[in-house]
Design a protein that fits this description.
By secondary structure, the chain is of the alpha+beta class. It is built from five helices and seven strands; from the N terminus they run ββββαααβαβαβ. The chain has one domain: 2-C-methyl-D-erythritol 2,4-cyclodiphosphate synthase (60s Ribosomal Protein L30, Chain: A), CATH 3.30.1330.50. It has a five-stranded mixed beta sheet. A two-stranded antiparallel sheet has the order 2-3. Strand 2 and strand 3 form a beta hairpin. The mean pLDDT is 95. It binds magnesium ion. Magnesium ion (MG) binds next to strand 1 and helix 1.
Length: 161
């Protein structure tokens, strides 16, 4: 049996009026969007960290420091693709991704397939390998109060033979 490695990622961004809400590279219509140095795509950041974690290649801040003007307003799919390339260069391929976005509103269910397809494309895998779940925080805490969004991801890599 080939070696399988698991990685975990988590991210959080503040919500602000007038910012685009971009999740997995897909722009979701909303009055509030995520604030950050890049496009603040909380889902792509969590998955990027999970891939880096599975390959023991550090974290997203190490590879894409927010002090670097190069990444200002950056499309976070670039981070996803780069993490995949780093993992592949180490001889790994992505088996599957399981992820969750925790956001009070808007409702995301109509965007699930578009986001899965976009993430799958960036990672060079079939969309059937990308799971995406949505939750609210039941009006509790900063996420529940609509002040922020969070995302969690787990990724499995296997040694490409
Ligand atoms: Mg982030």
């Amino acid at each position: 049996m080939s070696e399988v490695r698991i990685g975990q990622g988590w991210d959080s961004h503040r919500l602000a009026p007038g910012r685009p809400l971009i999740l997995g590279g897909v722009r979701v219509p909303s009055e509030f969007g995520l604030e950050g140095h890049s496009d603040a795509d909380v889902l792509s950041h969590a998955i990027t960290d999970a891939i880096l974690g599975a390959a023991a290649l550090g974290d997203i801040g190490m590879h894409f420091p927010d002090s670097d003007p190069k990444w200002k307003g950056s499309d976070s799919l670039v981070f996803l693709r780069h993490a995949r390339e780093l993992a592949e260069a180490r001889g790994y391929r992505i088996v599957n991704v399981d992820s969750t976005i925790i956001l009070e509103r808007p409702r995301l269910r109509d965007y699930r397939e578009a986001i899965r397809n976009k993430v799958a494309e960036a990672l060079g895998v079939d969309p059937s390998r990308i799971s995406l779940k949505f939750k609210t925080a039941e009006r509790l805490g900063p996420v529940g109060e609509g002040r922020s969004a969070e995302s969690q991801a787990i990724v499995a890599l296997e040694a490409a033979s």
